[in-house]
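example protein:
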Amino acid sequence: MTTESKKDPRASGTRVLLLAALAALSLGLVGALAGALTAGSAAAYGALVGTALVLAVIGFGSTVVNVVATVMPAASLMVALLTYTLQVVLMGLVFAALSGSGLLDDTLDREWLAGVVIVGTFVWLTAQVVLTTRMRIPAYDLPAGESPEPVAAGRGRPEQGGDRA
């Protein structure tokens, strides 16, 4: 016998992303406060920009993968790999643009920005993995309107090689 789940597992992807974003945002705000207290306003601004980068880049990529996994599950792995590659390229381009603009080390502290991006990404991914592994996702869906037939313990169907009476 199986127990029916009270929740639709496909509706939980957005909740996971929101909670992961909240974890990364919380870390970023704590990082900005710590930066302001220990290294000044440039560190706080660097931490805030790093938090915004994590939320924008990782959040957008995760949302795209979630939408594709809901609409076309067969394409989700390909989109996830492509999205990851684009996220790395985009982060590199943003850091190159910031470095070329002269904002780093003057207005934004380079170490605090990079540290919050690295730790924020790690926190986001850890939260997403932990929350996703706690979801109840069925291995397969039955066709609409069908319910599984209970099979007595130790007795299979004749076509499956069970007892024939």
